[in-house]
Amino acid sequence: MDWNSFWEGSKDLSTFALAIRAIILYIALIIATRLMGHRQVGILSGHNYLVAAGIVSLAAIRMLNPESSLTSGIVIVFVYAFVNIFLSYLDIKWPKTIDRKPTILMKDGIIHRKNMLDCHVTIDNLLGQLRLKGAHNLSEIDTIVLEPYGKISVIKKPEALPLTRKQMNLPPKMVALPTILIYDGKIDEKNLHAIGLDHEWLMTKLREKGIANPKDIFLAMLESDGTVYISI
After folding, report:
1. pLDDT at 44
2. Residue (of 222, 218, 212) closest to 231 by Cα position
3. Domain limits of the chain?
4. CA 78 → CA 32, 35, 36, 59, 88, distances in Å?
5. Which of 40, 117, 138, 165 could form a disulfide with 36 if both were Cys (CB 3.0 to 4.6 A apart)?
6. What's the CATH code, domain 103-160?
7. CB neighbours of 100 closer than 8 A, spacing ≥ 6?
8. Which fold does the domain 179-231 belong to in CATH?
């Protein structure tokens, strides 16, 4: 294999060489994404979006064009990553300088038309976002805020909020994350012991469902309300 052509590109590259180039570039993208952290995955700001779009475009060109330089592609990927990390650091230190600020679209039940025009948000856009939030009636909403990452936050009026357990003088409900007990026929011993349960308890629950062997179960989870979910 001509290694110079492999790294710098050539129209005569074999299919095998193209596949290896794609794998190397993919690994570089994974490493760069890990370096940029969770913030990049969520695309929480304008520069995060630009970096993501730039890297995707760059990767597509390098993977499809055998004459493109793999070396320069990898260099650019990591330059993008470190520039994004630097901008994210500045964003944490001086958020109002680097990134956009939240914009109030409604306050005290009144829509701020000027802010909507400044943000290029139409009524249809706004109503669609509200439906996704489960807020269907504008008369029930006190405040709407357009966040820097493009989503909206909704604060309903007090009279439109559902009653809480505290308001009804009920004892607080225990909140816990669902826990995997069995996956692909294997009991998760670590999770079982972490929540203070044992095999006898688990087998009793399985027998109640008419199941004798844990190996017959694809997924079993203990949900937050104490329900045992089982999928065979």
Report:
1. 53
2. 218
3. 3-96, 103-160, 179-231
4. 6, 9, 10, 12, 15
5. 40
6. 3.30.240.20
7. 45, 46, 148
8. CRO Repressor (3.30.240)
Residue 177, helix vs strand vs coil? coil
CA dist., res. 132 & res. 158, Å (int) = 20
Q: Tokens 């994404």 map to which residue?
A: 33
- pLDDT category at 123 given cuts 50, 70, 90 is very high
Whether pLDDT at 45 is above 60: no
Among residues 109, 138, 110, the alpha carbon closest in space to that of 126 is found at: 138
Contact 149, 47 (CB under 8 A): no
In sequence order, what DSSP letters do the residues of 70-81 get, joined into one string? HHHHHHHHHHHH
What pLDDT band is residue 21 in, cutting at 50, 70 and 90? confident
Q: List C-alpha distances in Å: 68 to 12, 71, 76, 101, 192.
A: 12, 9, 13, 39, 52
Task: Tell me if 103-160 shares its fold with 179-231.
Answer: yes
Average pLDDT over residues 87-94: 76
Q: What is the average per-residue pLDDT within 88-99? A: 71
State both tokens at 31: 């490493």
